[in-house]
Specification:
Keywords: Flavoprotein, FMN, Oxidoreductase. GO terms for molecular function: oxidoreductase activity. It is a single chain. The chain has about 160 residues and is of the alpha+beta class. The chain has a single domain, classed as 3-Layer(aba) Sandwich (NADH Oxidase). The chain is built from 6 helices and 4 strands, in the order ααβαβαβαβα. A 4-stranded antiparallel β-sheet has the order 1-2-4-3, with helices on both faces. The model has no long low-confidence stretch (mean pLDDT about 100). Bound molecules: flavin mononucleotide (FMN). Flavin mononucleotide (FMN) binds next to β3.
Amino acid sequence: MEVSTAIANRRSVRKYKPEQISKADMSKILEAARLSPSARNDQARKLIVITDKKIKLEMVAACKNQSFVKECGAVLIAVHNPEKRWSAEDCVIMLDHITLQAEELGMGTCWIGAFEEDKVKEVAKIPADMRVALCMTIGYPDESPAARPRKDLDEIVCWEKYQ
Ligand SMILES: Cc1cc2nc3c(=O)[nH]c(=O)nc-3n(C[C@H](O)[C@H](O)[C@H](O)COP(=O)(O)O)c2cc1C
């Protein structure tokens, strides 16, 4: 799949088939995460992959009761070290790589920004000095959402100066 096709076709998927993510697909997803760039190549981030049913259920509560969180193949938590400048951004880049790799594999993802950090840290046993950047659901889609609208280019792009 062309990268441009993956970018154009990606949607937030909130309904998943109950099947587990295959080992082959999961290793491609994790490799996309591993290869993503980071500031100074620090790689000061961790990706927690939650596949256990009981822990996924706990993640629903930590993610403001978004019930689809328990239906996905895996919940991903991107964790960064706040002492490392840009490590939060590095997490976002890592997750974005995952969204596009997932698209190529026929999988769906949804960013999860609505979460309570303390609860996520408790569920996933994340050390106190680490921060949760973002979470994401991933799995085999059981819906084909329509494209959400986007602003026109001239509303978001300015040339040479802000205007
Ligand atoms: C940083 C971020 C956080 C988001 N948090 C949530 C969330 O908590 N729950 C949810 O259902 N969707 C969440 N979304 C998905 C957005 O609602 C979605 O990307 C947007 O509506 C555009 O739709 P699309 O992804 O299908 O193009 C989030 C997206 C981003 C980028």
